[in-house]
Amino acid sequence: MQVQDISLDDDFKQSEEHDEITILKDFGLEEDEAQTYVGLAQLGSAKASEISAFTKIDRVRTYKILENLKNLGFATSTLSSPIKFSANEPESILKDIILKQKQKVEHLEKNSSQFLKILSRLKLNEPQIGLPKLTIVSNRNNIYDQMAKIIEETNDRLFIVVTLSDIIRMYYTSIPEVIKKATKNNTNIKLMTGPELLTKLEYIKRLGINKFKIVTLPSPGRLLCSETQVLMSGNTSSQENKNINDESVMVTNSNDIIKNMQSLCEFLWESGEDIVIEEKNNKKGKKSQKQSTILVVDDDADAVNIFADYLEIKGVSTVERCTSGKKAIERFKKIRPEAVFLDIMMPDVDGFYVLDEIRKIEPKAKIIMVTADKSPETTKKLKEVKPADVIYKPYDIEQITRCLK
């Protein structure tokens, strides 16, 4: 069994500070809408093209976002030519949204009481007892509410099979607190996920779970299985806040389905790899899995961070980040990474110079060149230097995955 000692801060906050984008998403904005509003607040009055350049969001999409922000009361525009947009004062906007939500809750409570009174006066048929029920739940937020409900109702054993992306999203819901409460009440939570979680163990902290399993997931979906009900779906959206309405799960109390899913979960649990998180004097124990280090070099810090985050999700244990060609050479000398993702166009020295210097240090260094330049000159130069691979911007996940393989 693989045991990892992870430092767990006793004062770890039950609800960590959220960034401005996450907070605005809670108020109903999609991620790129929240990003645009924050950018607009930083810029002041600006044209759509300027906002697009600042946020690095496609210009056509930016126009649509700005119109939606206007409709929601987050932004206003001038009657001048060209049109300029500005962010509305945030405090009054957020207060107005909170007030509307409170009014909705009050309205629902009132209608709920009235509906129950009406039903009490009607003669209703007795519900059929013993027949299995099946419910389809749509929208990611509703799905997480249903997951929390199942966890609360389970008092014996519960299998939870989810992807890393789902665990990260659940991190910002009520589910972690519900799991911790269930664990305190002696519910046996058996969490299973894919190997990507090994690079994101901090997301386990809020769950209050000190043991989970790394398994080969049967699908990129969700599966919760207790003794009395099953929640499952075959797929989840790969994007953080897109297509949440397109997601759906099936919930059933069918004994046949429950037995089949329990058998599957028991098989996964028995065949999975144990990961144990232990508190031990706030010191990190040594990781028993093989360490792999990759150096990412690009003068664009955002590009470095996006690239590095994806590598970490794919299981690279250490990703070094560098935004300078000269500094990258010095960094290579110190860490000797297994591979280097190297941008060509940089202001201090270009990628070809860095590649040449790195090969003086390590002739067999694996260097993947990253560029948006497809000119004949650059193509010819790439053929001459013979890197391990070439990724062209705007790159996609398949290109990066190919290089990792």
TrEMBL record:
InterPro entries linked: CheY-like_superfamily, Sig_transdc_resp-reg_receiver, TrmB-like, Tscrpt_reg_TrmB_N, WH-like_DNA-bd_sf
CDD domains: REC
GO terms (BP aspect): phosphorelay signal transduction system
SMART domains per the UniProt record, alphabetical: REC
Domain Response regulatory: from-to ranges: 293-405
Any Pfam family matching the protein: TrmB
PROSITE patterns named among the record's database cross-references: RESPONSE_REGULATORY
Designated name of the protein: Response regulator receiver protein
Lineage: Archaea, Nitrososphaerota, Nitrososphaeria, Nitrosopumilales, Nitrosopumilaceae
